[in-house]
Amino acid sequence: MTDQFVARIEEILWPEGPRQNIWMILDGARTIEIFRMLLACHLEYACLYSGQLTPDLEIAAPYLVQLDHGYRDTHQLIQQAWGNSWGVFLRSDTSLKKLRRHLRDFLVVRDTKGNRLVFRYYDPRVMRVYLPTCTTSELRTVFGPIECFWTESKNPEHLLDFRFERGKLVQRTISLAAGVTRTADRPPPSDEPERISSDRPFGAIAIRQTQMEAFSRVEIRKFEDWMINHLTQFFPAQCMALGNTQLRAMIQDGIKRAAGYGITTQRDVCKFIDLMIVVGRDFDCDGRNAWAGTILSAEQEPGSKIRTLHATALHYLRSLRQS
Questions:
Q1: 44/147 same-domain check
Q2: Which distant-in-sequence residues (6+ apart) come within 8 Å of 71 by Cβ?
Q3: Does 19 share its domain with 103?
Q4: pTM higher than 0.90, yes or no?
Q5: How far apart are CA 39 and CA 102, in angstroms?
Q6: Domains in the chain: how many in total?
Q7: pLDDT at 200 (0 to 100)
Q8: How far, CA to CA in Å, does 36 sit from each of 3, 31, 58, 82, 299?
Q9: pLDDT recorded at residue 195
């Protein structure tokens, strides 16, 4: 992150000059460097978790930090955080104590079955997906005393500005390089679930099925991106021959086919797709690789199945080299 971009971000956060109403929620789970920076800085902050925390949980917890305009610690924090999904920024005139109490209400949510889930809404990759899916009542609850949220976009050269205005979400995309702003009014979803918000216990947000699906799509996309980097690193020649578009299509196909065999964990799906690269895209249904179909159709725990498949594939490839 260049000093020019940091200066532009600071102009957006403090358009009227120094004020004590700009905050950041830092996600300590991203890297231990966040906790180290907090210990070394002179900014006021508070952990969003309460009670006696274990050392590991204290390091990985979310923290609410009050940013000071023009302060060296603020400048360094923005410079390190931006583009690395360290957290989100917000503007609120309320006190640290009241803002912390408000933000703590969303740390635990309920799914459609009533199960309690930890909600890392302060991850910019989550917030920029979550807010556009919210209904009017959900937006009213989330924003509360908060005037606006800011997050990095997928492209770190763009800043996303979210506000709750006249009963709807207004999203602005600001180019940090050109200073160009695009505004989009997002009307709330048509399935406004007032019944969900009215019967929930205080402080608990219900995550609807459509929102869960949106989060799932984001996680799948993140895994696809990770797989592209992984395959490019370990199988550069094959990836170059395919090109990015076909490579992503192959990864998407591999995720679906692996799921058909009950293989769903990222580690095991990665191994399945590795075999698609090495043995052949259709290795699991190719008659020349009968061993693969036999293993995959067996009544076996998915983790054991992929381990057996991987070991057998290595033996098969060695035999090909020797012949």
A1: yes
A2: 42, 43
A3: yes
A4: no
A5: 24
A6: 2
A7: 40
A8: 22, 9, 12, 17, 48
A9: 36
- In-domain check, residue 104: yes
Which of 140, 174, 207 finishes a domain? 207
Q: In what order do the strands lie in the sheet with 158-165?
A: 44-47, 62-66, 22-27, 87-91, 148-152, 158-165, 168-175, 181-186
| Residues 141 and 28 grouped into a single domain | yes
Using the predicted structure, report yes or no on whether residue 79 has a pLDDT greater than 90. yes
pLDDT tens track for 17-36: 888 999 999 999 999 999 99
Residue 215 lies in a domain: no
- For residue 227, give the amino acid letter: M
CA atoms of 142 and 127, how far apart (whole Å):
11
DSSP-derived pairing of the beta strands 168-175 and 158-165: antiparallel
Read off the tokens for 83. 């583009």
Of 207, 236, 264, the one marking the end of a domain is: 207
Residue 296 tokens read as 């995959």
Regarding whether 270 and 140 lie in a shared domain, the answer is: no
229: left (phi over 0), alpha (psi -120 to 50) or beta: alpha
Instruction: Pinpoint the alpha helices (H) of the chain.
Output: 3-13, 32-40, 55-60, 72-81, 96-104, 124-130, 136-143, 194-198, 209-234, 236-260, 266-278, 290-297, 302-322
What is the distance between the terminal CA atoms of the chain, rounded to a whole angstrom? 53
Please determine, for residue 315, whether its predicted confidence score (pLDDT) is greater than 80.
yes
* 106-116 pLDDT tens trace: 999 998 888 89
Measured between alpha carbons, how far is 74 from 91 in angstroms, rounded to an integer? 15
List, for residues 254-313, the tens digit of each pLDDT value.
999 999 999 999 999 999 999 999 999 999 998 888 999 999 999 889 999 999 999 999
- pLDDT one-digit tens code per residue, 163-194: 999 999 999 999 998 766 677 666 666 544 43
User: What's the CA gap between 70 and 281, in Å, rounded?
Assistant: 55
Q: What domain range includes position 274?
A: 222-322
